[in-house]
Amino acid sequence: LHPGAINRPAGASPGRHIVYESLLNENTDTRNSTVARGYAEFAFLKNFTFSTNVGIDLNNVRNQTFQNKIVGDGVTSGGTAGLTTNEFRTISLNQLLNYKQTFGLHEVSALVGHEIQKENNATSSVFKRGQNLDGNIQLANFVTLGSINGQLDLLRREGYFSRLTYGFNSKYFLDLSYRRDASSRWSPESRWGNFGSAGISWNMIKESMFKDISWLDALKLRASYGSVGNDEVGGFYQYQSLYGLGNNNALEPGALAASLRNDKVTWETNKTTNIGLEFGMFKNRITGSVEVFDRRSSGLLFRVPQGLSSIITTKLENIGTMFNRGVELQLGFDVVKSTDFTWNLEFNITSLKNKITKLPNGLPIPNGTQRFEEGMDIYAFYLRRWAGVDPTDGSSVYYANPGTTGSTVRVNGKGDTLTTNASFAQFGFNGSAIPKHFGSITSSFSYKRLSLSVLLNYQVGGKFYDGNYAGLMSFRYGASLHADNLNAWKQPGDITNVPRLDNLNNNQLNAASDRWLIDASYINVRNVTLNYRIPTKLTSKIGLDQARVFVSSENLYVFSKRKGMNPAESFNGTNGPVYTPNRLFNAGFNLSF
After folding, report:
1. Beta bridge partners of residue 96, listed in sequence order
2. Helix and strand tally (H, E) in the chain?
3. What is the pLDDT of residue 1?
4. Inter-CA distances, 171 with 106, 278, 532, Å
5. What does the pLDDT average to over 393-420?
6. Which residues of 139-149 are buried (b: 16+ CB within 10 A; e: fewer)?
7. 120: buried, middle or exposed (CB in 10 Å: 19+, 13-18, 0-12)?
C-alpha cells in the first residue's frame, strides 16, 4: 500500500490511495445545540392582551481534521492536524399588543408589535504540521504552526409591525398590515425599509344566491397584494468597503481592498399579487383551492462591473427585476368514508414561469452553468452545445462558433460545423431547471384503530445538470469512475455517446456542456407512517386517556432518471458532492394522561 510501490501513468494522481487514506485520515464534526423558548402573556381591559416572546438558539460545531504522513496530502508535511470551532448565537425578542372586539355583525382585531434579533457567529481555526508521535492527532503533538485564524460576524435586525382585520357578518373580510424593518447589512442611511399588504375575501357561500345549491358546502373568493423585504443575500457587511487580511510580506502586515462602499444598497423587495378560490362540495367530500399568483422582485443585488481604472472590478448595486407567475391547485378527496374504513387523498400541484426583466446595463451575467439574461428565466442553462462522439477517433465534438477554422473543425452529414476543441464550442440556452409542474400527493388510510399515511413529493419536467455524474465520467487514473465508462469508444467505427478514455485530453473530451443535462422529473417517497391506537379499555386500566404506537420512515426512496441522482437537492438544477437526505426509520409510542 505504500505509494512508492504504485506506478501510475502520466496524468495520474501520484501518492494517492482512496481506501488507505480513508482508513488513516480523520474528518469529524461534533455538534451541540441548545434551543430555548419562553413567553409571558397578560390580559387586561377585557379586550386587550399583551405578550412577549424570547428565543435563544445556541449552536456549536467542532471540526477536527487529520492528514496522515504515509499517503495523501499530509505526506510532504509530515502529517497535518486542523481544528475549527464555530459558535452561532441567535437571540430573538418580541412584544405584541392585541385587541379584539365584536360589535353586532362587526368583528375587529388589531395588533401592534416590535421585535429585535441579535446574531453572533464566531469562527476560529488552527492548522499545524509535522506529527511527532504516531497515534496522537491532537494539536500538541504537531511541531510547526501552519496558520491560525479567527472571525466574528454580527447581524442585527429590528422591526415594528401592525395588523388590522375586519369582518362583517361572516361574509366580507379585510386584512391590512404594515411593517418597518431595519438590517445591519445596510448602511444607516438605507437601513430601514417599509413594507405592507392588503387582502380581501368574500365568503360567497353565505349569500342567498347559493342557499338552494345543496351540493355546494363552501365557496370563498380572496385576493391580496403585499410586499416583503429580503436581506438574506450573503455576507454581513454588504455596503462597506472591505479589506482582505493576511496578505503579508514576511513580517510586515498587509491587506488588500476587497469591495467598494455603497451606502445606497438596501433591501431586495418582493411584491406579490394573489387571487384564489376555495371550495367544498358534496358534504365536503371534495375540497380544494385554486390560486393565481404574480410575484415581482425588484432591487435585486448584482455586482456591476466598474471601469478599468477602478481598484475593484465590481460594485454591489440594487439593479435588477424579475417575476414569477403561476398557478397552484390543491384538491382533497374523501374517496371512502365509512364507519370502519376511510381513505383520503390530497393533491397539490404548482406551475410557474420566471423571467428576468432588467439587468445592469442590460448585459447578461454568467452564473456557472446558467446565465442571467433579460427575457430569460433565472434558471435557464447556458452551456456548450455537445454534438456527440466522432466514431473515427472517439473525440467529443461540439457545435462550433461561427467562423471557426483549423484542424479541429469537422462537418457532419447535416452540414453543421463541429469542433473537437471545447474552447471554440458554441454556447446556447438549453432548457431550464424550472419544471413544468411540481407538488405533493398524500394518501391516508384508516381501518378501525389502524392508520397508514404516505407522502410523496414529485416534479415533472425541467432540466438538471448532473455535475456528480460528469465528474465520474471524467477519466482520471486512480479516481472513481461511473460504470457507463464501459461504453466508451474503443476502436474506429464504434457508435456510442461516451468518448474515448484519454486521461491527457480529459478536459476536451468531457468539458461542461449540455451533454450533462438530464430530465429532472422525480418522485420522492418522503414519509410513510403506520399508527395503531390501543383500545381504551386497556389504557384505562393503567390510568391513560389514550395511547398509540407507531413506526415511520422518511426519505424512503427517490425515483429519478439516473440512479442515485436527487433532483430535489437544489431548485437551480445543480448538485454537488454532498450526502443525500438521510433515510430515517422511527418507532415509538405516545401516551396521554
Report:
1. 51, 113
2. 4, 31
3. 43
4. 10, 14, 41
5. 89
6. eebbeeeeeee
7. middle
